[in-house]
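User: Teach me something about this protein's shape.
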Amino acid sequence: AAPEMARVRFASSGSEANETALRLARAYHVDRGEPERWRVISPGQAYHGSTMATLALTGRARTLQDPYAPYLSPHLHIGNGESALSELDQRLEEAGPGTVAAFFCEPISGAAYPAYSPPEKFWRGLDARRKQHGFLICFDEVVTGMGRAGSWFAYQQLPIEPDIVTTGKGLGAGYAPISAVLCKQHVYDAIDRGSRFFDLGHTWDGAPISCATGLAVLDALAGRGLVQRVRERGPRLLADLRSAVEDNRLVAEVRGRGFLLGVSLVDLPDEMHADERVEDAALNHGLLVSATHSTADGYAGDEVLLAPASEHVEFVLLVIPDVNGSLRGKALRPDAFEAALRHGTVMTDLLLALDPLDTPIPDYEKFGIRSGAADLVVQPEPSTLHDLRWRPGWRVCLGTPSWPDGSRCDLASREVLRGALAQLLETGYDAMAAIEYEVRLKDAANVPMTTGISYSAGEVVALDSFVSALRPALEGLGVELTAVHTEAAPGLVELNLAARPALQAADDAAYTKLAVKELARSMDLQASFLAKTAGGEEGSSGHVHFSCWRDGSNAFAAGADVMRSAIAGVLEHLPAASLLLNPTINSYKRLVPGWFAPTNVSWGVENRSCAVRAINSARPELCRFECRRPGADANPYLALAAIAVAAADGLRRGARPPEPVVGDAYSRADLTMLPSSLEASLLAFGADTVLQRGLGETFSDYYATSRSWELKAWQETVTDWEKIRYERSV
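Assistant: First, the predicted structure itself:
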């Protein structure tokens, strides 16, 4: 994290670390034969801790120092801005340069005057004065250290290096009390060659539990690429924040680095102060505001807790979802995964051109087998890094593929969903979604594990061994399993997943399929997400629950026109969207009347015979619609993408759906029928230019080609059913 620093000593709080740094600076000068150096200069607005030594460093006498003034050393302070260097020169002259032991500051203010950092001219001037006058530079990075500003330490972005640096909050991440003091070799050497005495005696210095926590946090920061993530996304966050408030008269300045940002507000010429405006607005959104202390980061602002990584990682499985929704990738050793976080790793673009049996599809010219199966560059998404708890030492992470020239791979399922959600966002809404899966479970002898009684308490309890293993497996993957129940077909079990932002909901669905299949295999069971495994039985669905949100509120609250417009868009594009919701030959065996699988363009309020079920609730956050057309065999990313594009189109046009169906939708001969075969869905998709544009025309051509390949494979296959039925009679 800081190779330029030679030595480290651990403490248990930021205040202790900063006091240790002060003692170290004093010891350095004493052992060099400069006992007259004891004074410290620091910015007046700063806050460095609650011990007597660190309280003396602040210039905020009225708010922090007054009660303890007799105990505090008379240190010197400077202001901020353009005059800071000249004020530093004045303080050095007042004190006598030979009496100053250190300049003590935050490279970026965290606890006071948030996110402020002096201009580069100041740091270069400070470095010159250090060389001229011989004092040390101590940086307090209790708040800014460990990546918050986009580098391990914030000073690594400045044209200056400190002699001593402290860190704290980010090292323990809220899990254990730990802080650290780091110094350069020359500071250590002065004491080592002098008195060789620097003993502080804090009880918890270097405590094993705290240090183990610190190691785990460092592993998480490095293994998940979080510091790099902050470095890459910080400038965009700053630009977006500035853009969002540029016309707000309250805002004087937006500043900061990485994810450590600050907004300066000014009072307007009316009766209400800026702080009162902020407090009122926060309370209206259900938030409490505390101006000082009481918040988790020690003063004011937000905190992010970083969960420790696994104790021992042997492999990280880096995967991308293919066009069929299968996760494909490779296992990387931890060091290779860390390299992939920085530079990406290569996988063949043939992964984009394989059918479910791994046969290369030869109809693509620019990638796949016909172009020589060139490379894709896959960049891990650290936020999707999770444990495979049923395989100790293994983790899994989703990746984002790009072409070798760095351009976005617009054929990747996850990227298609991102693009669809971006279109929905252009209408002013974010999407929340949840997917419920029906999976068939059989034992090693191919016997269904339930008899086909829906919602059976006795039968779901009999699945205890599998469900009890599945819950922690999904928790390890960051997936919340909210409910499990049996369905009305032998071995059919429904899994309900919690609502999430739509992209995360699709990630949850992909990880759930992986966990269910892997766990079943490990327990000598069979798990199938095939849409239909036997005639005369209910099939396996993959219903999608969907809602639109704005400013933290559900826009689908009961009776809202927003829900109706979104439903209207989905209904209009449902025939074409069937190609993504029902992507296989087998999908259409499920879609038969009477088995709660929709066959026509219909919607109704709490009506499960319809293609879209509107769900109103007394709790606004639960209002949503359920698209019942998708099967369990659908690629969750593409299913959600199709729904998002269709809903966005309805919202954009303010569309209105027909009257909701009351009663049995299957009996309504006046309703438009949905495609009943893959071939019919291909024709409907080809005619829907709005849906194609929304998904991306390049992707739409690519996807239609993959479905045509499936249809061709089916048409060229002679089945046992055909032989049995016709061979003797023709």
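Now, about its shape. The two ends are 78 Å apart (CA to CA). The CA atoms of residues 169 and 182 lie 15 Å apart. If you'd like, I can walk through any region in more detail.
User: That's plenty for now, thanks!
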